[in-house]
Specification:
It is a single chain. The protein is 25% helix and 28% strand. The protein is built from five helices and twelve strands. The strands form three sheets. Strands 5-4-1-6-9-10-11-12 form an eight-stranded mixed β-sheet, with helices on both faces. It has a two-stranded antiparallel sheet with strand order 2-3. Strands 7-8 form a two-stranded antiparallel ribbon. The longest helix has 16 residues. The radius of gyration is 19 Å and the shape is globular. The mean pLDDT is 93. The structure holds cytidine-5'-triphosphate and calcium ion. It catalyses: N-[(R)-4-phosphopantothenoyl]-L-cysteine + H(+) = (R)-4'-phosphopantetheine + CO2; (R)-4'-phosphopantothenate + L-cysteine + CTP = N-[(R)-4-phosphopantothenoyl]-L-cysteine + CMP + diphosphate + H(+). This is Coenzyme A biosynthesis bifunctional protein CoaBC. It comes from Saccharomonospora marina XMU15.
Length: 233
């Protein structure tokens, strides 16, 4: 074997990756969205396929990105569509990685016509409603030994550091692994490099050095592969 050959440790494994950012329509021409580019999820899908996995990539508004070779891409737009696509694919998967940025809220109603402004300088209020927590749903209904990975983009605040928030989120979400990106000040969104931590439910913690999104993807699959080899932990 070539010394630089990628491991084929995901051969025979089926994985689902979500990527991109959901868009929640307000009227026929407007939506609430976020800054996720989808590049990290695409790197995860590409690397998994290169390592032998059968990959389903659920891409939320990622039509600008080329489909990774050998990967089945399911295009979606809203959080509810993403939830349905992930729910369809997840039961057969050995691992599910939720790299997509899912809107927590959507406009409570979708206006049938374009919302127009009026002459009195007033502005409308947009009532929002909660979207389903897809990751929490996955964890609650997962088949035995399925590995579930979440992503968190965090900024520190007066209540705690990036890592404090991430550990709390890992416990709350109940997934096996949580990838934490420090965001703000031009970090992570839309860039080709990512940095952060990988936290495991068992309390392990790895610092992810600044590097490409492919590197981060490889680190995630290394950890997932490790957990797959020790089922029932
Ligand atoms: N996620 C999800 N469904 C949602 C929101 C988030 O599946 N409705 C997933 C994301 O794909 C990600 C993980 O949950 O893998 C963490 O997302 P994040 O927004 O950091 O978590 P939240 O629980 O929404 O917490 P916060 O209030 O900080 O946004
Ligand atoms: Ca959120």
């Amino acid at each position: 074997a070539r010394p630089d050959a990628l491991p084929r440790d995901l051969e025979g494994r089926r994985v689902v990756v979500s990527a991109g950012g959901t868009r929640e329509p307000l009227d026929p021409v407007r939506y609430l969205g976020n800054r996720s580019s989808g590049k990290q999820g695409y790197a995860l899908a590409r690397v998994a396929a290169q390592r032998g996995a059968t990959v389903t990539l659920v891409g939320a508004n990622t039509s600008e990105l080329p489909d990774p070779a050998g990967v089945e891409v399911v295009p979606v737009s809203t959080a509810e569509q993403l939830a349905a696509a992930v729910r369809d694919a997840a039961p057969a998967a050995d691992a599910v990685v939720m790299a997509a940025a899912v809107a927590d809220f959507r406009p409570a109603t979708l206006a049938e016509h374009k919302i127009k402004k009026t002459d009195d300088m007033s502005a409308p209020t947009v009532p929002l409603t909660r979207n389903p927590d897809i990751l929490a749903g996955l964890v609650a209904s997962r088949p035995k030994d399925q590995i579930v990975v979440g992503f968190a983009a965090e900024t520190g605040d007066e209540r705690g550091s990036v890592l404090d928030h991430a550990r709390t989120k890992l416990k709350r979400k109940g997934c096996d692994l949580l990838v934490v990106n420090a965001v703000g000040e031009g970090k992570a969104f839309g860039t080709d490099d990512n940095t952060g931590w990988l936290l495991s439910q068992q309390g392990l913690q790895w610092r992810i050095p600044l590097g490409s999104k492919s590197r981060l993807a490889a680190t995630v699959w290394d950890a997932v592969g490790e957990l797959m080899r020790q089922p029932g932990q």
